[in-house]
Write a structure and sequence with these properties.
There is one protein chain. By secondary structure, this protein is of the alpha/beta class. It folds into two domains: about 170 residues, THUMP fold; about 170 residues, 3-Layer(aba) Sandwich (Rossmann fold), CATH 3.40.50. The chain is built from eleven helices and 14 strands. It has a seven-stranded mixed sheet. It has a seven-stranded mixed sheet with strand order 10-9-8-11-12-14-13, sandwiched between helices. Helix 6 crosses helix 8 and helix 10 packs parallel to helix 11. The two termini are about 25 Å apart. Monomer. Its EC number is 2.1.1.186.
Length: about 350
Amino acid sequence: MFCWCRPGFEPELAAELTERAALANVAGYARTQRSSGFVEFISDEAEALSRALPFESLIFARQKLLRLAELRGIDAKDRIAPILAALDAQASASQGAPYGELWVEHPDSDEGKPLAGLARSFGNALRPVLRKAGWLAREDDARKPRLHVVFLAGDHVVLARSEPHDSAPWPQGIPRLRMHPDAPSRSALKLEEALITLLTDDERARLLRDGMRGADLGAAPGGWTWVLVRNGLHVTAIDNGPLRQHLLDSGRVDHLRADGFHWQPKAPLDWMVCDMVEQPRRVAERMATWLREGWCRHAIFNLKLPMKKRWEETRLCLALFEQQAEKPLQVRARQLFHDREEITVFATPASRR
């Protein structure tokens, strides 16, 4: 298994994969380097490992791939021939089935970013060759497995595959979102990414409807409130700090100057979101109270992680949240591209799955 992650969080992803594989009784070991932007989990039981670790369940992985081959010392004058040879060696396992798309990628790290130009130009050269050889569909087909060519260096390539239903739908697992000129802060990108990453298309259609009501705890200057308003919600924004005036002018925002950790709604809400800077266990406990008491039906919140033992803190906080919520919940968590030292959590009643 080959997984992209945020550079610097390789130990957390390695620990997550190792622990979850052990719990699933799948033997293997993690291999990575600090700040590389990826982790490999080596196992003789790759298919069992993939089933045991569905992408949806992974927190620190941006993308999940299954490695086909690793090519080192490739001649810069002909990188295509060894790739075709490696694919031919896989023919007995894959039965020559074409891939639906080709993604040529590189690590999202300081060392990997200079490879962006090579990846782009090589993809343009390789794509028609693969189509002629029968490895790639004549037209992109998002229903079929993807073929990934990962440049770790100019002469070092990893070939991998991903299943559309069990991976991120973006190269490197990164949704390329643009900052809207009306957004009050860049934090709006975090909630926008959370909505497209942690919710399915069907859930977004069902759970975010015009006229719903929500609360934004620690709202100032209003980035997350702005995203909810754009999705049709009427929002109570809780913060002692000021909000951008155009939010108040929308007619959909009530600003209450109060402490987000102590305020509670007078009537149940559809949504609660929270991006307060506070100890993660304290946030987890307060979020659990909201779900337990029925103050909201759905929630998205961030947990700011410590500098050390971040996987351990993540496990503890999520377990604490689910235990104190005292009701069956569907919980998904991910370190998003627009997150930093934090993870984002989505929680909804299990019956809504």
